Amino acid sequence: MPLAPGEAALLELPANHFKGWEARSGTLILTTERLLFHARRVNLQRDPVSIELAAIDGAGERAHGLLLVAAGGIPAHFILRYMGQPNAWIDVDGLAQLLLAMGDAPASERARLVDDWRNSSDSGARAVGLR
Known about the structure:
alpha+beta; PH-domain like
């Protein structure tokens, strides 16, 4: 899925996305405009997920590592995963709050919000190399 003109990728995380019976592995990408998920080629269902930040009406950590994002009343579930880094963690609830804040912020402020979250001591971003 190509980015729109003026849209920039701000954060990329390895993740799984649940679509029906399949837990698809891939990459969760936070841009200045959207939350995207790209499935790896090994998955049977490879269609991407695109959620406009302004359309997100709810987000939170449902269980340890499970990010639930709702847009227009439709939920999407993502498991954040860290291959090869057993002690690495991300503050999933903090990431959910970041998504909500980005939807309310002007596009010009969104990169700063991500940088602030990434550099906060409790985000876990440094532990997984997201600096």
